[in-house]
Amino acid sequence: TSPAAVFTASTSTMNYTGSSATTTAAATYNNLGVGTTSDTGAGVAYTLGGDTTVPGTLTVGNASSTNTDTLVGSTFTLTLSGSIATPFSLTAKGAFSAGTSTVSYTGINGSGNVNVTTATYSGLIVNPSSAETYDVAGSLTASGTVNVGTNATLSIASGITLTHSGATLTLNGTISGAGTYAYQSATAFPIGGTISSILRFDATNNAQTMSNRTYGGQVEIYNNSATNRTVTMSSSTHTLSSHLYLNAAGTGDIQLDGSANNPTVTIGGDLDFTGTGTGMEIIAAGNGTWTVGGR
To answer: Among positive and negative, which fits the CA dihedral 87, 92, 98, 99?
Structure first.
């Protein structure tokens, strides 16, 4: 019987540079590259062959190539544990096709923050073993589960939107920054962790539930469809440290419903109706007490 093959990455760099569809080995690499050689051939798809860990840098494509090479996540977990600022590098000729994969950022950069690469993800995890901030500097989408671990701060830059169209957000850490977390799930927004970025309850595709908790940043109740939508407030206390805006951006109405559970609501900033569409913006306050600190 032949002995099993063992790959020890040490400080190596493994580059896959195929000319046709290629499956990468499930392994723990140091640095990993796919399509990193400059060429004029057709773009190549490199598909993960299993769960993969990269403690260094993952690079996709070569900016000087004629066509785009793609890393395909398939159904696997890609763990980026590099203790560097940018553990996942998509060049100008590199792309990521998530499939139903999960990308897990776990690295701790001793010299600063860790960048979350701008891409379309399925599952997205930021979960370091000790405190770290993960910067979202470009708008991105996550269509699966998003998990912000206890030691993680997911910081969304001003003018940037992280659109979460998946069903589940696990929030044990912090979502911060001057940018927007667009929450589209029909699952009630979690009550754990800290949310201080702008939070958009995007009810365009379904009704939503606004949980009783502290919202540290601006909250927007939003609908950009032709269908009337409702965001229902849970019972107990809702504390909004900043503004509350209702925005019917399409032809459908948007309603914030407090009448079902009669919560106590404190708004530190303004309460305003900011819609740019023709739908109506409605608040059904119920019998709870609403206190507005702004206008």
So the answer is: negative
Amino acid at 227: T
Q: How do residues 215-253 score in pLDDT, each as one tens digit?
A: 999 999 999 999 999 999 999 999 999 999 999 999 999
Cα(176)–Cα(197) distance, integer angstroms:
4
C-alpha distances out from residue 181 to 160, 169, 283, Å: 9, 11, 22
Q: Which of 248, 236, 235, 242 is nearest to 283 (CA)?
A: 248
DSSP class of 292: E
32 CB-side CA count, 13 A: 23
What pTM was computed for the model?
0.96
Q: pLDDT tens, 17-36?
A: 989 999 999 999 999 999 99
With H, G, I as helix, E, B as strand and everything else as coil, classify residue 233.
strand
Contact 221, 198 (CB under 8 A): no
Find tokens 């000319």 and name the residue. Answer: 19
Instruction: Report DSSP state, residue 2.
Output: P
DSSP string, 145-207: -EEE-TTEEEEEPTT-EEEE-SS-EEESSEEESSSEEEE--SSPPP-SSEE-SEEEEE-SSS-
* DSSP result, 87-150: SEEE-TTEEEE-TT-EEEE----TTS-EEEPPSEESEEEE--SS-EEEEE-S-EEE-S-EEE-T
